[in-house]
Amino acid sequence: MSLDGQVAQTAIVCTFPMPVGTRFEWHHHHEHQLAWAPEGVLVVRTHAGSYVLPPTRALWIPAGMSHETGASGAAVLRSVYIRTGDCPIAWDSPTPVEVSPLLRELIPHLEDDSPTPEQRLRAEALLFDLLAPLAVATIDIRLPTDERASRVAEALLADPGDGRTLHAWGHQVGASSRTLARAFVSETGLSFGRWRTLARLQAALLELAEGRPVGVVATRVGYRTPSAFVAAFRAHIGVTPGRYFDAATPTPRTRSAPL
Q1: pTM, entire model
Q2: What are the counts of helices (DSSP H) followed by strands (DSSP E) for the chain?
Q3: Cβ-based burial of 1 (10 A; exposed 0-12, middle 13-18, buried ≥19)
Q4: pLDDT above 50 for 259
Q5: In the predicted structure, residue 48 carries a pLDDT above the cut 90
Q6: What distance in Å separates the CA atoms of residue 79 and residue 53, rounded to the nearest whole number?
Q7: Residues 26, 134: Cα–Cα separation, whole Å
Q8: What pLDDT was estimated at residue 8?
Q9: Who's near 166: CB < 8 A, 6+ residues apart?
Q10: For the chain, first and last CA: distance in Å?
């Protein structure tokens, strides 16, 4: 029971409008969080990877895990905060979940204070039953710490379609191509070419989540042909761009206790 005599809620829903440019810097919660955007596209970054979340997908963030939440444009963040002591789910890493039509209606229902305690308990039990993890690939790239290489990386994140060679970049930032190449390998673990490919694919996920056609996305992120983009995407992600947001595979759930 809570202090006011009401049945304590296991799941609390809060809604946060996110105008363009809104970003919740690195932080963590004492509760588990289910982050979902009924409007717009969320981008959640954790130390385990980055996650692009259209309205059909949410992210389970375990209690205590540091993360940063932003959006590719204007969005609405609807967060479900779940008390750890009463939670039957034992996921200890960020876990994408599918937002089915039923779950999409259930989350705002849990934000409403009108249900009776018994109705709320049933709704919360249904919430946990609807959370099905998805097996999806993520893309995570680090910035080099070398000031000149970092300038190159930041420019490519801002414009992933920029096709300049490392030699051309070197002229702009005042370093040899060899120096920049060494910085990317030693500080990110990736060659410059591989780093740029992942930066392009990361940008492509945002474009795809917003519903842009594959051919348009390919051009915007620097590929000469859609087929070249599809090949690169499939090589890293495992599915074609057109299927990434609708072909994820549910994986078995692990619970700490039966519902």
Answers
A1: 0.79
A2: 8, 11
A3: exposed
A4: no
A5: no
A6: 13
A7: 24
A8: 65
A9: 152, 177, 180, 181, 192
A10: 20
With the CA atoms of 111, 115, 121 and 123 taken in that order, what torsion angle do they form, in degrees rounded to the nearest 10? -60
Single-letter amino acid, residue 126:
L
Taking the C-alpha atoms of residue 218 and residue 239, their distance in angstroms, rounded to an integer, is 15
80/129 Cα distance (integer angstroms): 15
Residue 70 pairs with which residues in a beta bridge?
Answer: 23, 43
Token pair in block for residue 250: 């549910």
- Nearest CA to 89 among 19, 32, 45? 32
- Cα-Cα-Cα-Cα dihedral of 256, 102, 49, 19, to 10°? -130
The residue whose two tokens read 């540091």 is: 66
User: What distance in Å separates the CA atoms of residue 249 and residue 97, rounded to the nearest whole number?
Assistant: 10
The residue type found at 110 is: L
**Paired tokens of 159:** 């414009």
Band of residue 254 on the pLDDT scale cut at 50, 70, 90: very low
Six-digit token pair at 59?
Answer: 């992210």
pLDDT digits (tens, 9 = 90+) for 81-125: 999 988 999 899 999 999 999 999 999 999 988 888 899 999 999
Measure the CA–CA gap between 52 and 206, rounded to whole angstroms: 7
Encoded amino acid at 183, one letter? A
Q: For residues 243 and 169, give the distance between their C-alpha atoms in angstroms, rounded to a whole number.
A: 34
| Rounded Cα distance, 239 and 223, in Å | 18
Specify whether the CB–CB gap between 188 and 143 falls below 8 A: yes
